[in-house]
């Protein structure tokens, strides 16, 4: 492929642009541009290279979407701070009480129990908001998981094409 590029470049220089050989300095600046265009044309004829570029572009778009989704989650968390804090607190307390590996001081467990009790009261009083928050977080988690799986698949496709 490199030999073909050199042939195309040399042919372009000496047959298409015959004045180039006489006035090298006059054309030196445009030679770089011409060389880039010729290399672009050659690489466009290679379907594997074109597919790799398309996949890399898709991956970049997926990475951007992943970051946008993370920003949306952060924004949503700040809009629903108390609900989010209660979800985290009750989940953490459940882990502490159910785990046999974690041995915490009884005072800490009592504090966690009090916080959880307060959160349970909040969650019952705001059941509609809590249901919305849980659904939204599950939706975000599913979207993020799908994006990450798509990125892995695109990476695998790129790697397979590069190994051809």
Helix content: over 70%
Strand content: under 5%
| Spatial separation of the terminal alpha carbons | 14 Å
Shape: elongated
Number of strands: 0
Structural class: mainly alpha
Notes on the protein architecture:
- It is a single chain.
- With 164 residues, the protein is mainly α.
- It folds into 2 domains: 1-45; 47-162.
- It is built from 7 helices and no strands.
- It has helices at 2-16, 19-22, 24-45, 47-79, 81-98, 106-125, 127-162.
Secondary structure: elements and pairs:
Layout: H1 2-16, H2 19-22, H3 24-45, H4 47-79, H5 81-98, H6 106-125, H7 127-162
Quick structural gist:
This protein has 164 residues and is mostly helical. Helices cover 90% and strands 0% of the residues.
């Amino acid at each position: 492929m490199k030999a073909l590029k050199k042939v195309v470049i040399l042919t372009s220089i000496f047959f298409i642009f015959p004045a180039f050989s006489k006035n090298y300095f006059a054309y030196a600046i445009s030679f770089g541009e011409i060389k880039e265009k010729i290399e672009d044309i050659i690489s466009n004829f290679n379907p594997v290279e074109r597919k790799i570029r398309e996949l890399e572009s898709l991956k970049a778009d997926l990475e951007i979407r992943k970051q946008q989704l993370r920003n949306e989650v952060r924004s949503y968390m700040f809009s629903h701070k108390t609900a989010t804090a209660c979800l985290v607190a009750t989940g953490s307390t459940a882990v502490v009480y159910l785990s046999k590996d974690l041995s915490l001081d009884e005072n800490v467990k009592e504090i966690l129990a009090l916080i959880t009790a307060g959160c349970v009261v909040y969650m019952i009083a705001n059941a509609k908001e809590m249901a919305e928050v849980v659904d939204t977080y599950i939706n975000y988690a599913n979207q993020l998981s799908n994006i990450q799986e798509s990125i892995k698949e695109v990476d695998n496709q790129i790697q397979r094409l590069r190994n051809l």
